[in-house]
Protein: NADP-dependent oxidoreductase
Organism: Mucilaginibacter sabulilitoris
Amino acid sequence: MKAIILTENGDIDKLVLKEIDKPVIKADEVLIKTKAIGINPVDTFVRKDEAYVKRKLLIAPGEQMILGWDVSGTVVEAGKDVTEFKVGDEVFGMVKFPGHAKAYAEYVAAPESHLALKPANISHTEAAAATLAALTAWQALVTNAKVKSGDKVLIHSAAGGVGHYAVQIAKYFGAYVIGTGSGASEEFILAQGADEFINYGKEKFEDNVQDADIVIDGLFGDHILRSIDAVKRGGRLVSLIAFFEGEIAEKAKAKGVQTYRLAVESNGDDMKQIADMLKEGSLKSYISDVFSFEDIPAAHEMVESGKTRGKIVIEL
Ligand SMILES: NC(=O)c1ccc[n+]([C@@H]2O[C@H](COP(=O)([O-])OP(=O)(O)OC[C@H]3O[C@@H](n4cnc5c(N)ncnc54)[C@H](OP(=O)(O)O)[C@@H]3O)[C@@H](O)[C@H]2O)c1
């Protein structure tokens, strides 16, 4: 089968197309014939950085590195302990995260506990998009922050992969949603359902919002410190990037803010909740660009710009 191997950590030229053997499934796994693959910022972090490889990929000795976790496709083989899925089923999910899922390949071995059935009314491309990014939004808002009707929720990077799902999920739970983005993203963010938009190029979000029940922050630098100013006393702050230590932890504690440093994890039950929302149309994937399998390096370059809208997906 075709796979994109990461020959060593580095630039996009280290992503090389190769012919390798199909994976062999374990008893609790299915073999998926890949139809679409989602690309995320973490793919590029892991590509560049050996420390990320060790943390996220958990590579066995002698194994070839293959990036990718987000997959949608057809089950072509099922292990003897698999009960939920059968050959011919269309499935999707974020597989083995953290771990070595090897999703940049024509066939992917996936534990059944990481998957959901793809709703028939959405394409594999839309499904592959709604995996790591949608799960992150779900686990941030629902698992961690326990969003509820009437909550005021500030979502940073609301035009991005995680952000556009987060806006829709928060609205689904009845929250009042404020999204941040550049001026060019205003229309898009409001179209996802946000009640208010803040242009980070024109104003400081913390001047505008100081009483959020929940803030979701995935930006680098002092952004998280500023986000503490935007949460109300006793509110919830979910960080996708910064860790709550040192000055950040102290500032949050002084304000009684409940802090969560999310590390998204594969979870078939959460995937099924996302599948239900996709099926009923309360969650939609926005896909700004589609690349071919051979063009995965170009997709990495685009994600690294930090300016992509919604999701970027690979179609096979
Ligand atoms: N911890 C975890 O488990 C986890 C999981 C998933 C993602 N993450 C992290 O969360 C972050 C978001 O992920 P993603 O997949 O959504 O990334 P993404 O799709 O690449 O996000 C791109 C978006 O960020 C927006 N943006 C850039 N700078 C901004 C700013 N200063 N204020 C507001 N918006 C800004 C851009 O909007 P404009 O074009 O309008 O500027 C763009 O639409 C990444 O850093 C990612 O690594 C962490």
About this structure: DSSP finds eleven helices and 15 strands in the chain. The first strand starts at residue 2 and ends at 6. The radius of gyration is 19 Å.
